[in-house]
Amino acid sequence: MVTLTFLITSCSLLICSIPMIQGWNIYVEVINISSTPIYVALQSCEYYTSLVAILCISIPKVIDIFSRIVLNPYIGNIKQILFSGALITPSLTILDLVTLLYIVPNADLNALTFIIKIKVILTVATGAVLIHKFGGKKQWRKYNLLLVFSMICIGRIFSIFRLYFKGNIWTYMTIVNIICDISGVLFFIILSIKWFLFIYQETKFKSLTKDQYLCNVYVLSLISCAIGWVLSVYSNNSNTDWCYTNTFHLILYTFSYGVYYVFIFMFEGRAIQREIIATKVR
Questions:
Q1: Of 132, 149, 184, 278, which shows the fewest CB atoms inside 10 Å?
Q2: Per-residue pLDDT tens for 185-210?
Q3: CA 219, chain centre distance (Å)
Q4: 3 state SS for 210-238
Q5: What distance in Å separates the CA atoms of residue 59 and residue 134, rounded to the nearest whole number?
Q6: Is-contact 78 109, C-beta < 8 A?
Q7: How far is CA 74 from CA 82, 133, 222, 270, 272, in A?
Q8: For 206-259, how does the pLDDT look when each residue is reduced to its tens digit (9 = 90+)?
Q9: CB–CB of 53/259 below 8 Å?
């Protein structure tokens, strides 16, 4: 699972980076791109503040993860839980730092577009790996999760390339993008419903295991992040024209990852604390 996810992620990131590496210009219908809503949103104080707020949440978690690894004598019992934080937090935190320190000061829309797309890819990639790891191979089959992940990756690739075209090519790419997004999200919802029905039956006779509890956390975290992502993209016309994404929707997109961080940190932390207490008692 990890190897295939890594390969799909690497290929997707490489393909998504082509427009930025080649120096393509995003197609806009106006002469002055600095007058577009997305450019204004990128330069706004509100968006800058939202990035700072997200970093204030994520950076302490990065420090917490590494301090537990270095200082905690019970690391052997919680290393699987810390593994998830080590996967999720540093990568997304680095991307937010790049956005804050480089993209915003330079108003680089190509880099912003790339960062936004790869955040989705990395989030779904780590989520799929963790759900498969803690949810079990029977309930979360590898190829079902890889199908969801692949659909999201294909959607991100088309969503970034269509920004550089117009006419029929733009229309076809937009249609593929929307179909992949809807298919991936709906399939994941179906898999999640099946999982929660399984958990409902299991908890009739016994309590949740640590792995089942953590899997619930990651599933619900991904769903909460996806809701924010869908609302930010599809609640206005930003999916049909990225340049018309306004400040509110850019901030909504940013805070959807804040919800993702908080949800995981809060409930994952409870599992870590419980494991440490249990170890001390033994």
A1: 278
A2: 899 999 999 999 988 888 877 888 87
A3: 12
A4: HHHHHHHHHHHHHHHHHHHHHHHHHCCHH
A5: 25
A6: no
A7: 12, 21, 29, 15, 10
A8: 888 878 888 888 898 888 888 877 777 766 655 556 677 788 888 888 888 777
A9: no
Tokens of residue 263, six digits: 């949800």
DSSP conformational letter for 29? S
Q: Does domain 36-281 have CATH number 1.10.10?
A: no
Longest dimension (CA), the chain: 70
Residue 36 CA, chain-centre distance (Å), reads 26
Reading the block at residue 252, the tokens are 């909504």
Residue with tokens 């680095």: 94
- Predicted structure pTM score: 0.84
How far is 237 from 226, CA to CA, in rounded Å?
Answer: 18
Structure tokens belonging to residue 237: 């016309």
Residues in Cβ contact with 14 at an 8 Å cutoff, skipping those fewer than 6 apart: none
Size of the chain, expressed as the number of residues it contains: 282
Among residues 78, 135, 130, 82, which one has the least CA distance to residue 275? 78
The answer to whether 191 and 176 are in contact (CB under 8 A) is no
Q: What is the dihedral of CA 13, 26, 184, 145, to 10 degrees?
A: 0
In angstroms, rounded to a whole number, what is the distance separating the alpha carbons of residues 265 and 268?
A: 5
